[in-house]
Amino acid sequence: MAGRGRGHRTFSVEIVGIGKGENLPPSSVQPTPLFPPLDHKPVPLQAGEEAEYMLALKQDFRGAMKTLPFYIRPAAPKKGQHGVKDELWHHICIPSFKL
């Protein structure tokens, strides 16, 4: 019954494209560039009254969307309320703390 136990994988250097007796390609000592070179220049920003109006409209729309009920904000912890975990942690870590 073949195929029992752990899988056995073989690796040969010829698969990668390096033949026997060949040297590995030289390693690069320079760091890679932070950003690739841009093929196209960015489009200049539009200036004018119409562009400013559209920008203000977009910002107003985004602000209005945040007031809708589907936009869920994380609940802020209420002051003065401690959980059981907090009390136990204080009791274990701070010996002078009384429950």
UniProtKB/TrEMBL annotation:
<dbReference type="GO" id="GO:0006383">
    <property type="term" value="P:transcription by RNA polymerase III"/>
</dbReference>
<feature type="region of interest" description="Disordered">
    <location>
        <begin position="19"/>
        <end position="41"/>
    </location>
</feature>
<keyword id="KW-0539">Nucleus</keyword>
<dbReference type="InterPro" id="IPR024661">
    <property type="entry name" value="RNA_pol_III_Rpc31"/>
</dbReference>
<dbReference type="GO" id="GO:0005666">
    <property type="term" value="C:RNA polymerase III complex"/>
</dbReference>
<comment type="similarity">
    <text>Belongs to the eukaryotic RPC7 RNA polymerase subunit family.</text>
</comment>
<dbReference type="Pfam" id="PF11705">
    <property type="entry name" value="RNA_pol_3_Rpc31"/>
</dbReference>
<protein>
    <submittedName>
        <fullName>Polymerase (RNA) III (DNA directed) polypeptide G like b</fullName>
    </submittedName>
</protein>
